[in-house]
Amino acid sequence: MKESKNVSTDTSQLSKETLLKILDNSYDAIFATDGKGVTIYANKACEKYFGIKPSDVIGIDSWQFMEKVGCYPPTAPITLHSRDKHTLEQTTRTGAKMLVTNNPIYDQGGNIELLVQNCRDVKQLEDTKRDLEQTKELLARMQDEVVALRKKELRNVTLVANSSQMQELLQLVDRVAAVDINILILGETGTGKSALAKHIHKSSSRKDGPFISINCAAIPDELIESELFGYMAGAFTGALQKGKTGLVELADGGTLFLDEIAELPLRLQGKILSVIQERRFIPVGGRQEKETDCRIISATNRNIEDMIEQGSFREDLYYRLNVIEMELRPLRERPDDTMALIYYFLNQFNKKYKKEHSISPECRDILLDYSWPGNIRELENMIERLVVVVEDSVINVCHLPKVFSEAFSKKIQLLEVAEPQASALDTAVIQVERKMVVEAFRKYGSSRKVAHALNISQSRAHRLIEKYCNYSETISNSQGIHD
Q1: What's the confidence (pLDDT) of residue 477?
Q2: Lowest mean pLDDT among 1-5, 74-78, 222-226, 429-433
Q3: Which residues on neighbouring strands pair with residue 475, listed in sequence order?
Q4: What is the pLDDT of residue 102?
């Protein structure tokens, strides 16, 4: 490496030119006087704070210095008189407030040989202090807002439990929520596993602590370890200089919800097991263990026992997670909940979007007959879409996507295939029924009017129209269905 011509690597042999460069590039103003108070040096920063050039003050004593630069009090005479180090606040002619520190240097006889004065802008210090206080206030306010948002999120959790399955499940939650043990929630995608985990946390003794959630399937394998356990400064390329706190540590005193736990890489399952058993973990790139006290609730839509047999999930971790097992049944097996959820989401989105929609009985029946493969999440999204898109006050069959009519038609076809061979009388009755329904629908064009003409309920009229009339014809006459 090529050495500088002007700077020696031995600090005891720094040249005068180098020393002057160092002093002149100091942010603070620096003065030096001899033992009698005569100024022998001033750096360039004195111009900014005192409005003078160094050459204007060199060779004058401290009292002349005070008169020339118009600063008070005279700090040098005070130090020379007391012979002790002093720090005083001084106001200059330019209006600057300076914090002046006088440091006496003694000779072998104990006399003051030199007096070095360091002058720092108080306003800069005050601004820095004020900025620091504002930053602290902002951080505290943000922390309060995060806590408030978390509490609001937990308050907004509503579990609809009209079905016997859900009522039994909530009774189990009431019994175990206060007991600080781990829970594994099973259920298909969209059945409300996250909402149930929040409900458990809200009902537990940790309700005032944080609820930290992570979807193990949503984060790449190479990042999930640092998200869970955090990392130290310089742990890897691109890491933050100050490191990062992991979710396991953030959940201290609260609940850690590991959604889609079956997707957790095998190499990290051992670290989670250590957190459960020992309440300890090591951040990425770290050497010292950290402690955490969090309750773990996990959830999955996969069969973990099959994964254990395949070697992709640790058996010891499974039994640690599955102290209490809760299963959320799919929506197709909970028709009582489906009905309640339809109107729950309808009211929520009416309020959110300032609408006043209602759902026709025919539309409601089709929604109830649908299998909802996406479960509650699909139902919620569908109701929100209908509330936003439909302009009419009544949400009717014609407003539903085609998938609902196709599912309904397939169900009718399966029922017809499942029926035993019809007798001649049954066939004649079906033919008469078909003829009457088709003619009535062609004449009146709405399920309500067809129901009135045939003296049957409107929901039955709608089902017969779906059964015997061409669906495209139903759509073409859909305006009449609104009547």
Answers
A1: 41
A2: 1-5
A3: none
A4: 85
143 HSE (CA, 13 A, CB side)? 7
Sequence-separated (6 or more) residues with CB below 8 Å from residue 342: 359, 364, 367, 368, 379, 383
User: Hey, is 28 helix, strand or coil?
Assistant: coil
**Of 228-237, 247-256, 299-308, 402-411, which range is least confident?**
402-411
Instruction: Provide the edge-to-edge strand list for the sheet that holds 97-106.
Output: 39-42, 29-34, 112-121, 97-106, 86-91
Question: Is CATH 1.10.8.60 what the domain over 333-407 is classified as, yes or no?
Answer: yes
pLDDT surpasses 50 at 293: yes
Pairwise CA distance, residues 323 & 316, whole Å? 12
Which H/E stretch holds residue 327?
strand 324-328
More confident residue, 16 or 372: 372
Any idea which of 55-59, 94-98, 129-133 has the lowest mean pLDDT?
94-98
Report how far residue 417's alpha carbon sits from residue 411's, in angstroms, rounded to the nearest whole number.
10
Distance CA 68, CA 60 (A): 9
The H-or-E segment that residue 346 falls in is helix 335-352
- Do the Cβ atoms of 397 and 481 come closer than 8 Å? yes
Question: What superfamily would CATH give domain 11-124?
Answer: PAS domain (3.30.450.20)
- Cα angle value 356/362/366 (rounded, 5°): 105
Please give the model's pTM, rounded to 2 decimal places: 0.60
Least trusted range by pLDDT, from 28-42, 294-308, 322-336, 365-379: 28-42
SS3 391: coil
> Could you tell me which residues come within 8 angstroms of residue 381 by beta carbon, excluding any fewer than 6 positions away?
374
Distance CA 398, CA 366 (A): 11
> Please, what CATH class does the domain formed by 157-329 belong to?
alpha beta
SS3 395: strand
| Closest listed residue to residue 42, CA positions, set 22, 24, 19 | 24
Domain ranges of the chain: 11-124, 157-329, 333-407, 420-483
Res 261 pLDDT > 70: yes
